[in-house]
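Data availability (excerpt). The following record was deposited with the supplementary files.
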Amino acid sequence: MWTANAATVAPSCDSADGRVHFTPANLMANLHRAFEAEETAHLLQSLFPDPELFVHHAPLPRTLAFGDEGAANHNRLVGRTGQRGIHLFVYGREYFRPTKLTHFPQRQTLEAAQAIARLHRLDSDQLFFAQQDPESIEAGAFHNDVIATAHNELLLYHQKAFVAPERLIERLSSTFATTQTKELCAIKIDQFSLNEAVSSYFFNSQIVTAADGTIVLIAPEECRQIAVVHETIQQLRFDPHCPISRVLFLDLRESMKNGGGPACLRNRIVLSAKESAAVPRRVFLDKQSFADLENWADRHYRESVVLSDFLDPLFRHEVETALDELTQILGLGSIYAFQKA
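Predicted structure:
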């Protein structure tokens, strides 16, 4: 599963009980994706095992009322590291209110977002629930991270990202200024169309803080090739109000063809030093673990897979062998059902 869709996380500095909260996404909009929720839950419990520091919630009930797609529809805005942040949950529909149908399913419900906020012990004054504009879902932005993105005090959003965007941004800006003692940098993108937003995956870029403190935008190569999107990125770089100072373009065509851009690999898990020390060391990437993972991929990843391979019992054994070795490399113990049989 794409990391952004795997779960929603609230850091300890935000929750009322001072612990990190995790809720795996039930992904009930797609049968083949919903199977992964249980394994994701086991994985998170192995990664974050200390119950005094971490709280693991079960996926929400798999009903139409609680469709949940994880962090792909969640943004956290904050002024500085360790500060209590603001949570922006974005939903496509309300179960208990008629919603205009779209060609692409409205996967996230308001009821699911509200349930996660309650489970994660978040106060009402730090919560915002916004409906995604149905027109953007109709254009193919079935997750909000295809049409808006946030990092610290920066919020980039397409003009069609939200229903009543002006009112939302006004409320967000007011709350941010009051609680974070700095201004929210909310930038509306109206230079290119919804179709160009979806085809470029601009809003699915990663925004990260580098070791030197600069803000870097990591964008798909498509953002450079589509002229109006590339021009918009250059405008952002030289906008004195925008904190982005560098841009990296990556060729991710194979990933893009499967519906995933850079931010699909993102799930912001903010940890204190004590919480970080409680996570197994092997899951933090260093030169040795990178070499081990590269070697593992070289040995186990096939160049191609065809439908008939799934009829071969040896293929299942091959996959399970690879997964078993991977969990050993990362020091995670038994996660998958076949490891516990």
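Summary of structural features: The domain at 3-205+250-279 is CATH 3.75.10.20 (L-arginine/glycine Amidinotransferase; Chain A).
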